[in-house]
UniProtKB/TrEMBL annotation:
Protein name, as recorded: 2Fe-2S iron-sulfur cluster-binding protein
Keyword Cell inner membrane tagged: no
Keyword Iron: yes
InterPro entries assigned: 2Fe-2S_ferredoxin-like_sf, Adrenodoxin-like, Beta-grasp_dom_sf
Keywords: 2Fe-2S, Iron, Iron-sulfur, Metal-binding
Organism: Flavobacterium soyae
Superkingdom of source: Bacteria
C-alpha cells in the first residue's frame, strides 16, 4: 500500500509523493527516490542532519531517539517541529503527512 506525503521543497514547490509502505523506506530515501535535494550524507544514521525537515501537520510520528535529538541539538535552522527524515520510517500511519525541507547549510 502507498501513502500520500506532501513535501515542500526549498523553492516553495509542493510535491505530492506516493510512498510505499512495504519497502522499509524512510523519508530521506523517499526524497532521494523522487530526486528532491536531500543529501543524506551519513546514509541514514542520524549523524549529519542533511535530511532535516519541518513537520507541518499533526500526524503521529515515532518518538525521537537519542541520536536524532543529539544531532538536531547541533544542527542549523532547527525549529520546534524539526525532524530528521532518515529517522521517520514510511508506514500507513503517515498518510497525509506534510513536510518542508529545511534550508541547506
Amino acid at each position: 500500500m502507498d501513502v500520500l506525503i506532501k513535501i515542500k521543497d526549498r523553492e516553495g514547490v509542493i510535491h505530492e509523493l506516493q510512498a510505499p509502505t512495504d519497502m522499509a523506506m524512510n523519508i530521506m530515501e523517499l526524497c532521494k527516490a523522487y530526486e528532491l535535494p536531500v543529501e543524506g550524507t551519513c546514509g541514514g544514521m542520524a549523524m549529519c542532519a542533511s535530511c532535516q525537515c519541518y513537520v507541518l501537520n499533526d500526524i503521529a510520528l515515532p518518538e525521537m531517539g537519542d541520536e536524532e535529538e543529539a544531532m538536531l541539538s547541533e544542527a542549523f535552522y532547527v525549529k520546534s517541529n524539526s525532524r530528521l527524515g532518515c529517522q521517520i520510517p514510511i508506514t500507513e500511519e503517515l498518510e497525509g503527512l506534510e513536510l518542508e525541507l529545511a534550508p541547506e547549510y
